[in-house]
Design goal:
Elements: E1 2-8, E2 11-18, E3 21-25, H1 26-30, H2 38-45, H3 49-62, H4 68-77, H5 87-94, E4 99-102, E5 108-112, H6 113-123, H7 125-171, H8 179-198, H9 202-208, H10 222-240, H11 245-265, H12 267-270
Antiparallel strand pairs: 1-2, 2-3, 3-5, 4-5
Helix pairs in contact: 3-4, 6-7, 7-10, 8-10, 8-11, 10-11
Organism: Pedobacter cryotolerans
Protein name: KilA-N domain-containing protein
Domain KilA-N: 4-138
Length: 273
């Protein structure tokens, strides 16, 4: 779970990532209306029948475990003078995932961005526009940073590619072969790495993705590019050691699995995203 903060008209709005989705603090947004009792603002918003209908529709679209029967009973009661509904009650009764309650230092009520923008609109149309603007700026900044990281890793992979091809040239390419035969050996070794990491050859990827530009490596994640760079260096070393291709594939595949798991589980790396 990763946290970010954006400044919207002087208010600090917390954003957290849950299951690859952005959840924005309703508690922070509510301070625009009532700085002292923001939770009451959220409860008042949830009294409206239109709001309950919106929340229920969102859950029906995005949540297979949403309890429709319990939702119907709440919808029936919504709008009456005696009706009250808290985020916690909504979550417990319907098994909702669009709204969550967090405890601790950065606790409060958070909602999926679709719901948070709807809440912000109820608070103030102008505030909603500023919230969307700052949220998009955050996403643009994150995207630019990821693009820079990806470009760096792609460049590193290309540098190691030359180390890799030099090892192939010195150890695997016999003298006197044709240019076509030489090209086949280079491609064969490149696909060795593709199979070890992506579990498919470049040709297989192209056949599966006929509408995509570039190649299998252009579509790689940052983690995959890091591992690819390592595999190119390691394969060059294994070629120098005269290991046959089948043995090298086994070793490289095990290394790829281990390194990918390590990178994906590494919290420090995930914070960079």
């Amino acid at each position: 779970m990763k946290n970010n903060t954006i400044d919207v008209q002087g208010l600090q709005i917390s954003i957290t990532i849950i299951d690859n989705s952005d959840y924005i603090s309703l508690t922070d947004i509510a301070r625009n209306k009532n700085p002292n009792e923001p939770k009451d603002v959220v409860k008042n918003w949830m009294r409206s029948r239109n709001v309950i209908e919106f929340l229920g529709l969102w859950e029906q679209i995005n949540n297979q475990k949403f309890k429709g029967v319990e939702f119907d009973s709440l919808l029936f009661e919504a709008g009456s003078n005696s009706f009250t509904l808290s985020p916690t009650k909504w979550i417990e009764k319907t098994n909702a995932i669009g709204i969550i309650s967090k405890l601790g230092n950065k606790g409060g009520t958070y909602a999926h961005k679709d719901i948070a923008f709807e809440f912000a609109s109820w608070i103030s149309a102008g505030f909603k526009l500023f919230l969307i603007k700052e949220f998009q700026r955050l996403k643009d900044d994150e995207g630019n940073r990821l693009n820079l990281q990806w470009s760096f890793q792609r460049t590193l992979a290309k540098v190691n590619y030359h180390i890799h091809t030099d090892a192939i040239k010195l150890n695997l390419i016999p003298k006197g072969i044709t240019a076509e035969q030489r090209s086949f050996i280079y491609s064969n070794e490149a696909d060795l790495l593709n199979v070890a990491l992506f579990e498919k050859t470049a040709k297989q990827w192209r056949e599966e993705n006929p509408n995509k530009k570039g190649n299998i490596r252009d579509e790689a994640t940052i983690e995959q590019l890091v591992v690819l760079s390592n595999l190119e260096s390691i394969n060059a070393m294994l070629i120098d050691q005269k290991l046959i291709q089948a043995d090298r594939l086994d070793k490289l595949n095990q290394l790829a699995i281990t390194q990918m798991k390590s990178l994906i589980d590494n919290k420090s790396i995930q914070k960079l995203k």
